Amino acid sequence: MRILAIGLGGAGTRIVDLLYNHDMKSRVGCVSAIAVDIDGNSLRQLSNIPDNARMHFPALDPEIHFDVTSTINVEEVMNLIQKMDNFEIDSIMIFAGLGGSVIDAIPQLTEELRKSFIEPIFGVCILPIRNEGKRHSSKASDDLKRVKSVLDAVFLFDNETWQERLKAEYDQFSVAKETITSSYRQKVFPDNPRDVYAILNEKIARQIGLLLRAGEFSETGVEAADIVLDAGEVLNTLKGNGLVAIGYATEPLRSSFKDRFNQWRSDTYFSETSHKRATRIVSLAKRAVYEEISVPCDLTSADKALVLIAGPSQELSMKGFQTVRKWIDRSISGLEMRSGDYPVMNTRFVGIIIVLAGISNIPRVTELNEIRRQYEEENAAEETRFLQQNEVNNGILNGEREKATVPFESVQTETGAGEEEKDDFDITDLFEDEATESEYPHNRETEILSEEGDYTWQDEEEHPPYTSMEREEDLQNRANWEGTMAAEDGKQVLNDGMITLGGVARSEKRKEQNKDNMISVEGKGKKNATDEQLSMPGRQERNIADMTRMTDGGENKGPKDSIFGLKDIPSSDNKGPRDSALVGEKISLGKQDKRPNDASFGGKDVSISFVKGPNDSAYMGRSFSVTSPPKANDSALMGNKISVKSSGIRPNDNALIGNKISAKSSEIRPNDSALTGGSVHLSRGTPKTKEFLNGDVKMSARVPAPKDDLITRAERRKNKTQTETKKPEIKPNYKKGTISSGYEKESEPEEDDTDDGLFWIK
Ligand SMILES: Nc1nc2c(ncn2[C@@H]2O[C@H](COP(=O)(O)OP(=O)(O)OP(=O)(O)O)[C@@H](O)[C@H]2O)c(=O)[nH]1
Question: Where is the composition biased (Acidic residues) (predicted)?
Fold first, then answer.
């Protein structure tokens, strides 16, 4: 899927920078990137996005109030986008950190983009870490509501979850390696925020990048992509579906000499280990959904899903795959589930990607909303107290001494005065308080309060403008978080130059208040093991998913179409399967009254007799045998081995493509450039072309002669044979996976260049 990636702010630009880097390394070229920020320092530190694609909009004076939406000139951004050499894109993706300031530009930017692009616009948004403070989390909650309402879908990635998870993983790894003398093998979780972000960004870029690269080729014409996935499949899963999460889990395959040797052992060996391979796919899927997911969520609240498995074909267990499909299909609340398997040769990994779209239950989002609610309540209480205190002060200034001496709880609390101090109230205390409090940015609210007499930030949809003062506080909170992270390990905080800290001084008291504002959300238990799983509430009135064995389709109700597959599909049932129903290693249908309609057949061995002909691009697989059907019309037959017997009507278009084609007793010959393949056998043809037939192409008696390319090709082949030119075997460009939109492209053998699975699928 080709995208225009727009990075906004520190988080957005850094992630897009990395995504762009991965894209260049993979030589696929499906990402066109620009970075927009108000922080020039952060922009300068990017290392991959070209300079002319970085846009810096400095605030006139960061110390005074500035509005991000007017600071960032959206028209200039649009000009740059239009000037860019934009290839045909399938969608636009905007990357930004929730709770930051630059994300405020999304609504405006989206509005402009929609004027020029009809492609869907998605967001990739980062949820903040808890320690960044209540105000930050509260703004993140507001931001999410706002961007969700203007974008077609929003991918979420939770910094908090992933930071904890990776830290636990690193800790576990270091403990495990303590016995090893060479310290360089120890992985230590960094305490520098920049390095933490770098690790998190790597995860995000990998999850998103792999999904994008699936289905793209390198421009050089070299078959760099092993997976071809129709971008439409991904877009259909995402579009109009609110919040999206991606789960991505991989497992390295053992590559000892013995294992390599075992690859050449008999089929019996593989059948013995088939259960093991199936279990691996299932456990990878569980990991992808429960552990390695961009934001932990309730699977049963998802509306749509997309499942892809990839790896060496002999390791991809169809049984495991079908079990996973069935599990996901039954678990999600919606009905749409897409899936595909992608055999990738020469890789040492097996992996799975699971995309869940339209999720309604994401605990972290609920938590942010709750923090926002609490924060607003606290703000309201504080403002009320402040107003009351102002009134008291005014009373004192007006000489109303008695009014000032009225016991006032909040004043006592603020000053820490005990009961005995009640009578010794000193007017100077109030002035001190006033001086201290004057630093609090309350002017606007005070005005509102004095006018309306009550606090009015109750409207859920009303978002108070994000002032530069608030921004400074956020930055301060973030600095606290950075400090805390370092302090945990007793290490010095390094100045990473990545995040510019604001320069507005605050009183000690205000800092204390900030501390109070820090949330104390019920902490997650420290993860001790990586296999710890989230336990999500199960869905009511659903069968318990069978994760280990193949499950029957269900009692009296017919199984969903997507459940068909595997070895055999019963041939006696007259009710034809509906949709993309037939996927499996071996499919056999006989005497069906009703033809299967859509792109129904995908599998290794498909055998169909006496069926009402499938009409679309129905047959795709390795080996086909079609007996006496009405003609297959479109580009129907594609596979390694195609055999058409007694066809009443010829297949017309570019119908036959495969390694080995055998058409017997065809009454009418295929006319167009119909026959393409390594080995073509037509019987009952006219003898006149015999002189041209050589090598793999044979024609006998009564089939009308092919008059198109075939003759030329046969002649060419003959000449080549005569000059003893060694001719490489002709292979079709595409080899079928198991869904209609998924093709495996055969690529040159290529060694993995990393051991982390990053480029094992390009
Ligand atoms: N994963 C990840 N998250 C980041 C990164 N930088 C910042 N964040 C998170 O994103 C949130 C927004 O931060 P930024 O993107 O730096 O904010 P901004 O939009 O540039 O606005 P400022 O508030 O001016 O910094 C922060 O609260 C962090 O939680 C990063 O490089 N990677």
Answer: 747-756
Per-residue pLDDT at 120: 93
Instruction: Tell me phi and psi for residue 721, to 5 degrees.
Output: -60, -40
413 has pLDDT over 60:
no
For ligand 1, the distance from its centroid to the CA atom of residue 526, given in whole angstroms, is 24
Fold of 248-358: 60s Ribosomal Protein L30; Chain: A; (3.30.1330)
> For 508-514, which contacts have Cβ atoms below 8 Å and span 24 or more sequence positions?
509/436, 510/436, 510/439, 510/440, 511/476, 514/133, 514/473, 514/476, 514/477, 514/480
| Cα 685 to averaged position of ligand 1 atoms, centre (Å) | 71
Q: Classify strands 679-682 and 698-699 as parallel, antiparallel or unpaired.
A: parallel
Closest CA to 667 of 691, 690, 644, 695: 644
- CA–centroid distance, residue 733 to ligand 1 (Å): 44
Residue 378 counted as an annotated binding residue = no
Is residue 455 classed exposed, middle or buried when 0-12, 13-18 and 19+ CB atoms within 10 A define those classes?
middle
Q: Is 132 labeled as ligand-binding?
A: yes
DSSP state of 127: E
* The token pair that represents 709 in the structure block: 């390319």
Minimum-distance ligand 1 atom for the alpha carbon of 9: 20
Q: Which two tokens stand for residue 83?
A: 């000037």
Nearest atom within ligand 1 for CA of residue 194: 31
Which has more pLDDT, 402 or 51? 51
Whether residue 370 is predicted with pLDDT greater than 90 in this model: the reply is yes
ipTM, 2 dp = 0.98
Tell me how far apart the terminal alpha carbons of the chain are, to the nearest angstrom.
13
Count CB-CB contacts under 10 A for residue 349: 20
- Between CA 426 and CA 411 the distance in angstroms is 12
Q: Which three-class secondary structure string do you get for 421-459?
A: HCCCCCHHHHHHHHHHHCCCCCHHHHHHHHHHCCCCCCC
Can you give 31-78 as a three-state secondary structure string?
EEEEEEECCHHHHHCCCCCCHHHEEECCCCCCCCCCCHHHHCCHHHHH
302-340: pLDDT as tens digits: 999 998 887 777 777 888 888 999 999 999 998 888 887
Confirm or reject: Cβ of 57 under 6 Å from ligand 1. no
Which amino acid makes up residue 314?
A: Q
Q: Which residues of 497-536 are buried (b: 16+ CB within 10 A; e: fewer)?
A: ebbeebeeebeeebeeebeebbbeeeeeeebeeeeeeeeb
Q: How many CA atoms lie within 13 A of 351 on its CB side?
A: 25
Asked whether 97 lines ligand 1 (CB < 6 A), one says yes
CATH of domain 1-242: 3.40.50.1440
Q: How far is the CA of 516 from the centre of ligand 1 (A)?
A: 23
Given a contact cutoff of 8 angstroms between Cβ atoms, the answer to whether 76 and 101 are in contact is no
Domain boundaries, the chain: 1-242, 248-358, 362-461, 563-733
Q: Is 451 annotated as a binding residue?
A: no
What helix, strand, coil percent values describe the chain, rounded to 5? Answer: 40, 20, 45
pTM: 0.57
- 687's tokens: 């003898």
| Structural contact between residues 653 and 635, judged by C-beta atoms closer than 8 angstroms | yes
CB atoms within 10 A of CB 254: 10
- Map 187-233 to HEC letters: CCCCCCHHHHHHHHHHHHHHHHHHHHHCCCCCCCCCCCCCEEECHHH
CA distance linking residue 185 with residue 203, whole number of Å: 21
* Size of the chain in residues: 762
Measured in Å, residue 11 CA sits from the centre of ligand 1 at 4
Whether residue 129 has its Cβ less than 6 Å from ligand 1:
yes
Nearest-CA residue for atom 30 of ligand 1: 11
Q: What DSSP designation does 632 have?
A: P
| Residue having the nearest C-alpha atom to atom 23 of ligand 1 | 100
